[in-house]
Amino acid sequence: MELSLEESFGILFIVAIIAWYVYDKYVQREHQLLVNYPIIGRLRYLLEEVREPFRQYFGDEKFYESKDKLDWVYKAARDLPNYASFSPAQPLPEPKFMIRHSNIVLNDNEVENDFEVTFGEKRKKPYTSKSIIARSAMSDGSISPEGTRAFVQGSYIGKFPINSGEGGVTSNFFVTHENYDSSYMTIVDSSSLNKKIKRAVKFLFNGAIAADVYRKLVFKNDPEAETYILDMKKEQFYRPNWDGPLEAFPKTVPADMPDVVFQISSGLYGTRDKSGKFDPNRYQKVMSFCQMTEIKIAQGAKQTGGKLTGPKVTPAIAYYRNVEAYKDVFSPNRFPYANTIEELFDFIGTLQELSGKPVGMKIVISDMQNIEPYAKEIKRRVDAGIDAYPDYITLDSGSGGSATAPLEMMERVGLNVRDSVYLVDKVLSDYGIRDKIKIVASGKILTPDDIIIVMSLGADFLQIARGFMMSAGCIRARYCSGTTGRQCPVGLATQDKKKRRKYFVFRHANYVANYHKNLLKNVKGLLAIMGLKNIKQLDKNKLLFLDKDSRVHDDIDEVFRRKLNLVKNKGEVNEFR
């Protein structure tokens, strides 16, 4: 008797289920659950697998203040109207800061567009940012090459600074730089036949596939092929020639590059010699393309050195960082020139002298004892007429960390950014040196109200990571580190070629620029209802504080006095938790 196609498939399905049942119950000895619940027990692993990637689609947001804030970021990136009806889907929890509004509000066009911030006024080459917002540190390596290019192009379009991250200024930071020459760039051209093949592939498919085919034709199996940027107009590849003479490098930052903040970590990547020591000559070359320097002492909850796992250390990343490919790159916990605060400041002075540009440091603080020693040393140097001290201090929040932060440190090490900003502003003011140092805030700043509150508490400038990540397509799947065996599903935070090469660089570059544009636009809207014409008019008197019992406090100094001086005021703290 001949079986129909449907019957054949049915029998095969039943046989497969029986075989699967037998395997789970009698053969495999890896999962105890499957022995007792063959087949159906695998649903647990399926649900566990999809939990993180699908988490953002459910309204109960627990890590951020509310899902409404996340929706704001995604809409702002796409330049969509950002209004809500009736009420927030998930109101902000108490306690919370409130913004004082004015009886006589302003129209948006009465608020000034002046968002400039100047760093290192005393340096030979001070830096004036056109925006109060920068994209925070994200290393090329932790971020895919395509992701880095999207951020760089978005920064250039949006006219806001971008922090290089500890991976240094890689070739991908030069993606907008078209007016280069062979004096400081290595240029690789190709045959007319290869160029014709590239054009044909682009005509039949798209530019991304054409670029991959062309790169393969030109470089064959060269492991460093990805360290070159493709100039689509000239149809040639280029990358900085870091071995070239210092004299050949630009004397001023090229106008067709974004404003880059060069971050140096304990690994000294991008400014180290073959033995891993600081290379002054290489540093000066890098600073030909950067506006200022940030020394990373700490980041988020990660008081350890930076961690880039082996799968992310591609030959290109190994080239950039001067390390071995496919091996874990774990930086030392302590910055090599920061065995004491005095040594750190002397090194900062060395960088200021070498570059003539502002130099700052990135720290995380837990209490006043973390910031007072810095303040004392700055005060001593100011009084002695010594200029070797940081031009700015970046305060990262202790409420999170990068994709490779130790879990045991998250939520346990460091104050949140609002507490940190208030405390550092107070300590610097108490020592009479507040006007010497810019305060940069970083940590869970997503929306315009976050900006208003943090700047009211004392910040001069902001660095945003999470918001920019989401604007660039991040769905918060939390697969960034690559240690789980899974990769970033959108291709933004992975070195997996199949995933990252499908990433829409130009589209996300515009999303990144839109996010920044709408942040400033809506900051202006908040300033208008506060009756303020300029962002510099913000101070803590523009805020109120609502405690967990909905009681309103209008003395912000008193709020923080009770909140931060826990030992002296144990009985006065609970109402603010």
Q: Can you describe what's shown?
A:
GO terms for molecular function: glutamate synthase activity. This protein has about 575 residues and is α/β, with parallel strands linked by helices. It folds into 2 domains: about 5-95, no CATH class; about 115-170 and about 255-535, TIM Barrel (Alpha-Beta Barrel), CATH 3.20.20. It has helices at about 5-25, 30-35, 40-55, 65-75, 145-160, 190-205, 205-220, 280-285, 315-320, 340-355, 370-385, 415-430, 450-455, 465-470, 495-500, 505-530, 555-565, and strands spanning about 95-100, 115-120, 125-130, 135, 160-165, 185-190, 230, 235-240, 260-265, 290-295, 305-310, 330, 360-365, 390-395, 440, 460-465, 545, 550-555. The strands form 5 sheets. The protein has an 8-stranded parallel sheet. Strands 1-17-18 form a 3-stranded antiparallel sheet, covered by helices on one side. It has a 3-stranded antiparallel sheet with strand order 6-8-7, covered by helices on one side. Helix 13 links the parallel strand 15 and strand 16 (about 460-465). The longest helix is centred in the last third of the chain and has 25 residues, at about 505-530.
Q: Which regions have little confidence, pLDDT < 50, spanning 5+ residues?
A: 566-577
Q: So how many helices?
A: 17
Strand count, sense and closure of the main sheet? 8 strands, parallel
Number of domains: 2
CATH architectural grouping of the largest domain = Alpha-Beta Barrel
What name does CATH use for the topology of the largest domain?
Answer: TIM Barrel
Short description:
The protein is an alpha/beta fold and 577 residues long. The protein has helices at 5-27, 32-36, 42-54, 67-77, 145-158, 192-204, 207-219, 280-286, 315-321, 341-355, 368-384, 417-430, 448-456, 466-471, 497-500, 505-529, 556-564; strands at 96-99, 117-119, 127-129, 133-135, 162-163, 185-188, 229-231, 236-240, 260-264, 292-296, 307-308, 329-330, 359-363, 392-396, 438-442, 461-464, 543-546, 552-553. The protein has two domains: 5-94, no CATH class; 117-171 and 257-537, TIM Barrel (Alpha-Beta Barrel).
